[in-house]
Every structure is written in C-alpha cells, then in structure tokens.
Write a structure and sequence with these properties.
Layout lengths: L1 E7 L3 E8 L5 E8 L12 E2 L1 H19 L6 E8 L5 E3 L9 E2 L7 H10 L3 H8 L9 H10 L1 H5 L3 E3 L1 H10 L4 E2 H4 L5 E2 L4 E2 L1 H7 L3 H4 L3 E2 L6 E2 L2 H7 L6 E2 L3 E2 H8 L7 E6 L3 E5 L13 E4 L5 E7 L3 H10 L4 H9 L9 E4 L14 E4 L8 H25 L6 E5 L6 H11 L3 E4 L5 H16 L6 H8 L2 E7 L3 H23 L4
Parallel strand pairs: 1-5, 5-14, 5-15, 9-12, 16-22, 22-23
Antiparallel strand pairs: 1-2, 2-3, 4-7, 6-8, 10-11, 13-14, 16-17, 17-19, 18-19, 20-21, 23-24
Length: 499
C-alpha cells in the first residue's frame, strides 16, 4: 500500500510517496511559486491556482518515478500553510487572491474586533486565542470593509489545505486543527464562535464550511483526477491539516512529553496535550491538533533569517559560520542580541527591531556577533519554552527540525537553552510525512484496522540517535540567567518606546 503526502507551503509544494510495508519514501517531487508582487506594505498574497498547479506538478513528478506502482496508492493527505484566506464563489472558483498567514495589513481590523469585545482577554475567554493579524478572522473583515463586492460574491471560505482538499475531492469541509487558527473557533467546544462571526459579518456563519473530525476522511479522489493519473480503486482524501499539525504527526509528537522545535526561517515550538492549553496572556496559541487532541504552539519570526543574514554579511559558508560560533565562549563575553529583525510575534512586537547590546572593542567582531545571534534567536524560542512550562507543558524530549537542526553546535545550544534532551530525525520530510501518515491512518480506520496512529508513527518516524544532545549543567545555568537578561532588556526598551 502506498500513500501520498502533500505539503503546500508559502514558497513551494512538495509531494512524497510512502510505502506502508517498508516505511521507505519511494519518491518525492516539488514545485515552487512566489508571492504576488507590487502590493502595499504588509500585504502578502498568492494565487490559489498556483497551489493547484504546483500540487499537480509534484504529484505527477512522483507518479513518474514509481511507474505502475501508482495503482497501489490508497489515500492522499494534504498539509497546508495555516491561516490563509481563500474565498470561493458559487462556482467554486477563487474570488480574489488568498491573503496569507504572513499578511500583517489587518492590524486595524484586529484592534476593531478586540475593542468591540472588551479587549484581547475577552477574546481569549471566548475562543482560547487572541485576535492577531496572522489569523484568518481579521483578513475576512478587511475584505468585507475594503472589497465589499468580493465579500458579497463569496459563497464559501476555506483555508489553503481545505482548498486543495476541495480540488481533490469536490468536498468543502474544515477539520478542527486548522480551524483553530482562524480566531473564529472555540478550541474547547470545537465549534464556531457565533458572536465573533456575526460581528465580522451577519452572514459569515453561512459562508463557513462544516466542521469535522481530523480522523475522518474528507472524501474520495475525483474520478477525473484518478483517471488522469492512472490510479485505481477509490483513493481516500484524509482530513489533512495545517503545516504545524502535520509536522507534529511527522515528528511523532502525538503524546505528552514531546515538544517539536522547528529551526527554520521562523521558529515554532509545539506539543501534544489531551486537554486545551489556554494562555491568558495570549502568547501561546491554543490550537487543536490534527488527531482530535490539542496542540499548544509558540511562534517566533526570527531564527535562521537572522543567522543567515550574519552568514551572508561575512561571506561565510555554513561550516564557517558554525566554526566562528564555536570559537566564542557561551554568552559571547556579554554580547546579547535581541533578534527582532522582522518584528516579533512572541513576544508581540510587530514593530520590533534587532539590537546588539554589550558591544566592546573585543566583541564588535564577526565571531562574537555570530555567536550572539545564534544564542539570541535560540533564547527567543526559550522564551516560548518558559511559557510552555508555566502552563504545565513539561517536555522530556525535544525533537528538532528545520535547517538549523543540521548544526551539531546548534543542537547542543538548544539542549542547553531549553534544559532538555534534543534529537533530530532521520528524515527531514516533516509535514509531508505527517500528511502521508495521516492518510494511512485514515485508510486503516475506514477499513476497520486495529492499527492506531501511535502504531503507525512508531513505524515511520525514526529518530537519529547520533544527533542526540544532553543539556550541560553549567551552560543550562548560564542560559537560564541570560534568558532573564534578554527578556528584561526587551521589556525595558519596549516600555521606553524603542521596540
């Protein structure tokens, strides 16, 4: 039995083929696309048809590699970038370009919604989450206010992975995991919040699709696509989910005690919980996952975007960057970096700036700045880890993904900053693997199999024990104090209007 996992992201779409019997990834293929250019400040949009074209191209690329074995494909799972707004008309066609998770042009709408309900704390009480520009709700209000004709022409509102599911199956539905990132959804009851929806638009609830379990299939692959691709039998389309939810499955993060840390352009931390984790301060997102449980999540905007900027600034290779960082002692002799080059989501500093503090004649040098940058972005995630622990999420193991996890030095730094064992995975497929695993799980559930999701992830999610790092006591003690200093510096500068 073979399963397709599709990961549709902000820059490209990747498809993999998972062999259920051997656990081998038989093929992978990807196709890239970009953002719509020439938009105003803060606007980030893409044409949903670009996702369709890239998905089809990547699927066909995989099918060409497996030949006749394509007839063994039993199900398809889709992972998609979270929060994006897809508006469809009565014919099921996009009304306009999709507004993406990274679109920050809706701050005014967030403030308007929050003010109506008495502040962010009241919104957290209603849904479990604050009203942030990255989420979907404010994007809907922005379209209604600025493009009323487009809103009026909208029959259905979907998220990016739901739109791909619709293209594959003809069915419009939203599962709990991705829906929880809309800021319209109560994560405790798994229902739309009627008050917020009706404030945004009296008819908004009519435009939202039915909600369904993440464990239930969306439907069956459309006959036209099955015939075009030479597939046989009924191919299930699983519920799929947001990229972080699928990344959790793809890293085996489906039980308490495990935290996944992604060291990518931006950074994320997420964990499994069998109950909602609500942060009254709104810094930790209270999401559902794509297994019908919950997934507290922390997100920072600046990780490898900062280290890569330093690497390029000094003309280093990745190996030279690592060597430079290794040549400087822990703490970079007092040089501290606030890594808010793109503003910041956690802590909420949309207009934040980067700061080097502690420059001296000795530390104003490339290796020290490199070390301080890597420590600064890691402690940015450490801030989120501290918030996790304050909410009762206590990891015993942190699974590292993303480009930064390829660095042995950075893996050890994470262990020291987080105060917990870290380990990378044998495969870097992440969300695409999670989508394929969810597809396999759904197929087995439909066929009344006794295999659980834990059984399946145990087979396919393999840790690379050669990468495991244990925290070093002296470094943990130092970073614990250094983390406090970073947070205090941030708060003082922010309170004075400089961040």
């Amino acid at each position: 039995m073979l399963y397709l996992g599709i990961d549709s992201g902000t820059q490209s779409t990747k498809t993999i083929v998972l062999d259920f019997e051997t656990g081998e990834i038989l093929a992978s293929s990807s196709a890239a696309y970009g953002l719509i250019q020439g938009l105003g400040p803060g606007h980030m949009e893409q044409d949903p048809q670009d996702w369709i074209a890239a998905t089809e191209q990547s699927i066909e690329g995989c099918l060409a590699k497996i030949g006749d074995r394509r007839k063994e494909i039993k199900a398809i799972g889709v992972s998609g970038q979270q929060h994006g707004l897809v508006l469809l008309n009565r014919q099921g066609e996009p009304v306009r370009a999709a507004k993406l998770w990274c679109d920050t042009a809706t701050q005014e709408q967030c403030e308007e919604i929050a003010a109506h309900f008495g502040g962010q704390s009241e919104l957290i009480a209603k849904t479990g989450n604050a009203m942030l520009p990255g989420y979907t709700a404010s994007k809907i209000l922005w379209v209604k206010q600025h493009e009323p004709a487009n809103y009026a022409a909208t029959e259905t509102i979907l998220l990016p992975h739901d739109y791909l599911n619709f293209w594959l199956s003809g069915e419009k539905r939203m599962e709990y995991g991705d829906a929880s990132g809309t800021a319209l959804f109560d994560v405790r009851t798994r229902t739309w919040n009627r008050e917020i929806c009706e404030f945004i638009a009296p008819d908004l609830l009519e435009k939202l699709p039915p909600l369904g379990s993440s464990a239930a299939p969306v439907g069956i692959l459309r006959n036209a696509l099955a015939e075009k691709w030479g597939l046989s039998g009924e191919v299930l389309i699983s519920a799929g989910g947001g990229d972080n939810m699928m990344g959790a499955i793809g890293t085996g993060n489906i039980r308490s005690g495990i935290v996944t840390a992604s060291l990518g352009t931006s950074g994320t931390l997420y964990a499994y919980s069998d109950k909602p984790i609500i942060d009254e301060e709104g810094e930790i997102a209270a999401f559902c996952d794509s297994t019908d449980a919950w997934m507290p999540l922390a997100c920072t905007m600046n990780v490898t975007v900062a280290t890569e900027r330093v690497r390029q600034l000094f003309g280093w290779t990745h190996a030279e960057l690592e060597a430079a960082v290794a040549s400087v002692p822990v703490g970079a002799k007092g040089l501290l970096f606030l890594p808010y080059l793109n503003g910041e989501r956690m802590p909420s500093l949309p207009n934040g700036k980067g700061v080097f503090h502690g420059l001296t004649m000795e530390t104003m040098a490339a290796p020290f700045m490199a070390r301080a940058t890597m420590e600064g972005v890691t402690m940015g995630l450490g801030y989120g880890m501290n918030r996790f622990r304050s909410l009762g999420v206590n990891p015993t193991e942190i699974r590292l993904t993303g480009g930064g996890s390829n660095s042995a030095l950075w893996r050890q730094m994470c262990a020291d900053v987080f105060g917990c064992s870290t380990v990378a995975l044998r495969t870097a497929e992440g969300a695409a693997l999670g989508a394929a695993i969810q597809a396999a799980w759904t197929d087995h559930r439909v066929n009344q199999s006794s295999l659980s999701l834990a059984d399946i992830t145990a087979r396919f999610v393999q840790l690379d024990e050669t990468t495991r790092c244990q925290p070093e006591k002296s470094a943990v003690e130092f970073y614990s104090k250094w983390q406090v200093r970073q947070t205090e510096l941030m708060r003082r500068l922010h309170g004075s209007g400089y961040l």
